[in-house]
């Protein structure tokens, strides 16, 4: 979080006082930054992630009420997690799904199935478990992407899942109303995962985005976190997909 944002937060009342935010995928990157921002806004945190070590460090840093290490695409483990949640909670944020790019002839069907589980079945299962656990007017918030909206070689799996998510979220918003359901669709975000994927090409990619994006800067996890908190706090918003990419799709 920038010093300017920190100063602004210190001069106004928090927007999530006393609320409980569950972050699945909350040990790193966008999930961790969203948890951090929610905590700054007065929320209590329950964190879940696959990596137990990172999760423990995040929970200690943020003073989380509790944490649970498991694979969110494991239906049984996810069910046990929701069964153990104190009720009601106010918001559930899911940032656990990644993206899978491969030319058709190189598709690993086991990996592709894991992506289907993470992008489609996971939101459906979370929505089903949320009924009776998330208070009326609370939020289910999923994080997806924008990069695979345009057809291209290697985009078969990622593209299908990217365009499916907004429709899924709209339907879930009707199914579990008055719980609200929204989707954040992010472009390139400067996270540790991006750094691992790009390796020594990271700085070149940052320079390219600074030169070409209409906002003339690289989008960071703190930008996604600010939007996530707004979607939690604004009770008029449901069934929507909110792009945040600095204008990347325009260029």
Summed over residues and divided by their number, the pLDDT gives a mean of 92
Strand content: 15-25%
Number of helices: 9
Please list the strands of the largest sheet in the order they lie side by side.
3-2-1-4-5-6-7
CATH superfamily: NAD(P)-binding Rossmann-like Domain
Helix content: 40-55%
Q: Structural class, from secondary structure content?
A: alpha/beta
Shape: globular
Terminal residue distance: 27 Å
CA-based gyration radius: 18 Å
Q: Let me know the largest β-sheet.
A: 7 strands, parallel
Low-confidence stretches: none
For the record, the CATH architecture stands as 3-Layer(aba) Sandwich
Please tally the β strands and state the result.
7
CATH topology: Rossmann fold
The helix-strand sequence is HEHEHEHEHEHEHHHE
Write a concise keyword list for the protein shown above.
251 residues; alpha/beta; Rossmann fold; seven-stranded parallel β-sheet; 9 helices; 18% strand; globular
Gist of the model:
By secondary structure, the protein is of the alpha/beta class. The protein has helices at 3-10, 29-40, 52-62, 75-84, 109-130, 156-175, 192-198, 202-212, 221-233; strands spanning 20-24, 44-49, 66-69, 89-94, 134-145, 180-186, 241-244. It has 9 helices and 7 strands; from the N terminus they run H-E-H-E-H-E-H-E-H-E-H-E-H-H-H-E.
């Amino acid at each position: 979080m920038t010093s300017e944002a920190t100063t602004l937060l210190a001069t106004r009342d928090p927007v999530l006082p006393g609320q409980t935010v569950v972050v699945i995928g909350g040990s790193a990157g966008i999930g961790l930054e969203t948890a951090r921002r929610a905590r700054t806004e007065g929320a209590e945190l329950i964190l879940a992630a696959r990596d137990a070590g990172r999760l423990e460090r995040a929970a200690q840093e943020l003073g989380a009420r509790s944490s649970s290490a498991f694979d969110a695409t494991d239906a049984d483990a996810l069910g046990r997690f929701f069964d153990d949640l104190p009720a009601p909670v106010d918001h559930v944020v899911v940032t656990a799904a990644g993206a899978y790019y491969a030319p058709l002839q190189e598709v690993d069907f086991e990996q592709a199935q894991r992506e289907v589980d993470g992008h489609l079945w996971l939101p459906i299962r979370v929505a089903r478990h949320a009924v009776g656990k998330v208070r009326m007017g609370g939020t289910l918030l999923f994080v997806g992407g924008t990069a695979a909206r345009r057809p291209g070689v290697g985009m078969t799996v990622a593209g299908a899942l990217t365009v499916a998510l907004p429709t899924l979220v709209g339907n879930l918003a009707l199914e579990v109303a008055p719980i609200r359901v929204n989707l954040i669709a992010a472009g390139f975000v400067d996270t540790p995962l991006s750094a691992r994927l790009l390796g020594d090409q990271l700085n070149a990619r940052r320079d390219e985005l600074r030169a070409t994006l209409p906002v003339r800067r690289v989008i960071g996890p703190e930008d996604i976190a600010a939007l996530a908190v707004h979607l939690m706090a604004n009770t008029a918003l449901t069934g929507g997909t909110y792009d945040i990419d600095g204008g990347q799709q325009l260029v």
